[in-house]
TrEMBL record:
It comes from Rhizobium bangladeshense. NCBIfam families: PBP_1a_fam (TIGR02074). It comes from the Bacteria. Residues 131-297 form the Glycosyl transferase family domain. It is an enzyme of class 2 (transferase). This is peptidoglycan glycosyltransferase. The chain crosses the membrane at residues 75-97. The lineage of its organism: Bacteria, Pseudomonadati, Pseudomonadota, Alphaproteobacteria, Hyphomicrobiales. Residues 718-727 have a biased composition (Polar residues). Gene3D superfamilies: Biosynthetic peptidoglycan transglycosylase-like, DD-peptidase/beta-lactamase superfamily. Pathway: Cell wall biogenesis; peptidoglycan biosynthesis. Residues 1-12 have a biased composition (Basic and acidic residues). Residues 1-62, 705-739 are annotated as: Disordered. In the C-terminal section; belongs to the transpeptidase family. In the N-terminal section; belongs to the glycosyltransferase 51 family.
């Protein structure tokens, strides 16, 4: 027992008696001893348990690395492992999705959609048209506030990252995780450009990977300034505006070269949500976002506190929901004509027009002034104006009261009855047949078939000269002149002067029952003003590429003669009488000779005044899109007032010049001697009575004398059913005043003073005149 007890303290023998040993000495421990017999030594069988016990006592020391620090080391280890595997997985995805893309050697920046820059005669921009809505600007050409504002709010480390911003991405992840939903994006401007240039807007892992690859490619091939310029010229700003220039003109009606700090902040704020934050949709939201942009710019050191305070007062309160300004009617007209001149538009082009922007603004203002002052009480809601010079160049065009409300161009596309404003063509045709301004006709009741035209005031003046009849717009005289010369001759002359619309060859054409556009009517009057030359209306003067290559240039500098000088001079003087002592007195311009003609249609549905000075020919129309009658509005009323306001403004600062012929009538065109002007109203004409007509139509119809041929007038002309040319329906003929159920004939214009008589008893007669007139 004692031996067993001592065996626990037993000292194992060694080959040396020294208490210590060096590393190079050889010795045996107890564990190294080989036991040959289980019974040979006392306690030999107990050694293994002792070793086990000793080992158990050492276990706590072997686990000294456990606990919290051991757990932490384990977390770090497994995070590293997961990171490595995640890296491998991401690399695999990049390789996979990258392999689905075309070879990088074929990548190229897509061409920006072509822009059409439309300019006025002074080079200023009227509008931009095309898919983008604005031209591309370099960073140097745009306001410096624009790129600074965009960088501050969208990508503050733009000039330091390599196309992808890990810090920004991490910040966005944390912010979105804390908010519980997407509130911040991590894409850089380069990534956004890559998406806009090459990829679809869908949010998928493949698109995101491809976006990163393309961003890296952009950073490798382009400078930071080039990338920023491409981004600002292509990004969507809402309201169909792509690029900062288009957005600036859309919301502020100015170039991006000229935007101030507050406006730049609004533009930069749009990028987060172009539709929701549009100042045209929600000005309050747009301005609130602009304040955040200004704060970001201040934080980045782009602006100072004082500049922030100044910018607070610069942010626009609102913008119209659509393009505004009369110039956009011109821009639409240009875009309609451009393909026919240069074909498909494949690159940026500049269209130089004939428009004078100052005249354009004056024209728009004159219509608005008259409509605001008197339009409401007279039930006139719309107006249009065209002003043309002697060459046919359109200097001002207004297609309606407000382009933002309605984009329909009433000056060009709407066709309506011109009423008595068509009469100058009737008188000019009569002069060509040998009559003169002093030829005398009898203003008395007449009947042409079943049609009995009456004067507007239902009064008759007896014998009058042509000059007096035109000044007073006498319907009976105009109807006689048409029958004297024949409707076909009047139509030929009207087409020769510039009327392009189809005209009906009937007697009532004398009173303007065939529909025409305001633009063609006005351009035709220009032939009277310029001495007898055709004035083809045109608005496009030249088309060039951005590099200056001429693609088109108009050739209207050598117009054909369509009237003799003598007849042009006579017509000018006769139409001067309209303004001096006739129906157009409201159009008098102090210090200037002016000529023109009024026109009013059935029940004042349309009212026109077309007139000219030696500088401009201008036509004005008032009415309603749905054909609703106005309250006794005539061509000498609202249209003449608006015409006068515009023409006075247009001639401000110019020296007065006489009309062609200097306002004098020619007695004998062959000798050119001047003749006295028309006798005052009520006085006897100074010339002998005009010879009776010798045409077949005049002899058979007896229009000029009545007598035994009084019952042989042609049948009343028949009107085709009128269709709407405006933005609303036009009442059918059978509900027009003076008509009624079963009334299928022509509805005469309003210049006819009384109700129209029809006969259902008298049978239609087929006479030689009927055959000649095509009845």
């Amino acid at each position: 027992m004692a031996g067993r007890g001592r065996s626990g303290d037993r000292i194992e023998p060694s080959f040396s008696g020294r208490p210590a040993r060096d590393d190079d000495e050889f010795s045996l421990d107890a564990d190294d001893r080989v036991i040959t017999s289980r019974s040979g030594r006392s306690g030999g069988s107990k050694s293994p348990p002792r070793r086990v016990a000793r080992q158990r006592r050492r276990e706590p020391r072997e686990r000294d690395g456990g606990g919290f620090f051991g757990f932490l080391r384990g977390v770090v280890y497994w995070c590293v492992v997961l990171f490595i595997w995640a890296g491998i997985g991401v690399a695999g995805l990049v390789v996979y999705y990258g392999s689905r893309m075309p070879s990088a050697s074929t990548w190229a920046i897509p061409e920006r959609p072509p822009n059409v820059k439309i300019t006025a005669v002074d080079g200023s921009v009227i509008a931009n048209r095309g898919a983008t809505g604005g031209e591309a600007l370099s960073l140097e050409n745009m306001s410096p506030y624009v790129p600074e504002a965009v960088i501050a709010i969208e990508d503050r480390r733009f000039y330091s990252h390599f196309g992808v911003d890990p810090l920004g991405l991490g910040r966005a992840i944390v912010t979105n995780f804390a908010a519980g939903h997407m509130v911040q994006g991590g894409s850089t401007l380069t990534q956004q450009l890559a998406k806009n240039l090459f990829l679809s807007p869908e949010r998928t892992l493949e698109r995101k990977v491809q976006e990163v690859l393309l961003a890296l490619w952009l950073e490798q091939n382009y400078t930071k300034d080039q990338i920023l310029a491409m981004y600002l010229n292509r990004v969507f700003f809402g309201s169909n505006a792509y690029g900062v220039e288009a957005a600036s003109r859309r919301y502020f009606n100015k170039s991006a070269r000229d935007v101030n700090l507050g406006e730049a902040a609004v533009l930069a704020g749009l990028l987060k949500a172009p539709s929701r934050l549009s100042p045209a949709r929600d000005a309050e939201a747009a301005n609130a976002r602009a304040q955040l942009v200004l704060a970001a710019m201040r934080e980045q050191g782009f602006i100072t506190d004082s500049e922030v305070k100044t910018a607070m007062s610069q942010t626009p309160a609102s913008a119209k929901s659509y393009w505004s300004g009369a110039g956009h009617y011109v821009a639409d007209m240009v875009m309609d004509q451009l393909p026919g001149l240069i074909g498909d538009i494949k690159e940026d082009v500049i269209v130089d027009t004939t428009i004078d922007k100052s005249l354009e603004k004056k024209a728009e203002q004159s219509l608005v002034d008259v409509l605001d002052k008197e339009g409401g009480k007279l039930d006139a809601s719309q107006a249009a104006l065209v002003s043309i010079d002697g060459t046919g160049a359109i200097r001002a065009l207004v297609g309606g009261r407000d382009y933002a409300t309605s984009q329909f161009n009433r000056a060009v596309k709407a066709k309506r009855q011109p009423g008595s404003s068509f009469k100058p063509f009737v008188y000019a045709a009569a002069l060509e047949k040998g009559l003169t301004p002093f030829s005398v006709l009898n203003d008395s009741p007449i009947r042409i078939g079943d049609w009995t035209p009456e004067n507007y005031e239902k009064k008759y003046n007896g014998e009058v000269t042509l000059a007096t009849a035109l000044a007073k717009s006498l319907n009976t005289v105009a109807a006689q002149l048409v029958m004297y010369d024949g409707p076909d001759q009047v139509i030929k002359l009207a087409h020769r002067l510039g009327i392009e619309s189809e005209l009906q060859p009937n007697a009532s054409i004398a009173l303007g029952t065939s529909e025409v556009s305001l633009m063609e009517l006005t351009a035709s009057y220009a032939a009277f003003m310029n001495g007898g030359y055709k004035a083809t209306p045109h608005v496009i003067r030249r088309v060039t590429t951005a590099e200056g290559k001429v693609l088109y240039e108009n050739t209207y500098d050598s117009p054909p003669r369509v009237l003799s000088e003598e007849i042009a001079a006579q017509m000018d003087t006769m139409m001067m009488g309209v303004i001096e002592n006739g129906t157009g007195k409201s159009a008098k311009i102090p210090g200037w000779q002016a000529a023109g003609k009024t026109g009013t249609t059935q029940n004042s549905r349309d009212a026109l005044f077309v007139g000219f000075t030696s500088n401009l020919t201008t036509g004005v129309w008032f009415g309603n899109d749905d054909g609703k009658p106005m309250k006794k509005v005539t061509g000498g009323g609202l249209p003449a007032k608006a015409w006068k306001e515009f023409m006075i403004a247009a001639h401000k600062g110019l020296s007065p010049a006489p009309l062609f012929g200097n306002g004098q009538l020619i007695d004998n065109p062959t000798n050119g001697q001047p003749m006295a002007e028309a006798a005052p109203d009520g006085e006897q004409p100074v010339t002998a009575e005009v010879p009776r007509p010798t045409t077949i139509g005049g002899i058979i119809s007896g229009v000029f004398g009545g007598g035994e041929n009084a019952e042989r007038y042609p049948q009343a002309p028949v009107r085709q059913q009128r269709t709407s040319q405006g933005n609303g329906p036009v009442p059918p003929a059978d509900v027009a005043e003076g008509g009624g159920p079963g009334y299928e004939g022509m509805v005469p214009p309003g210049d006819i003073g009384g109700p129209q008589t029809t006969s259902s008893v008298q049978p239609r007669r087929t006479t030689l005149l009927d055959l000649i007139m095509g009845q």
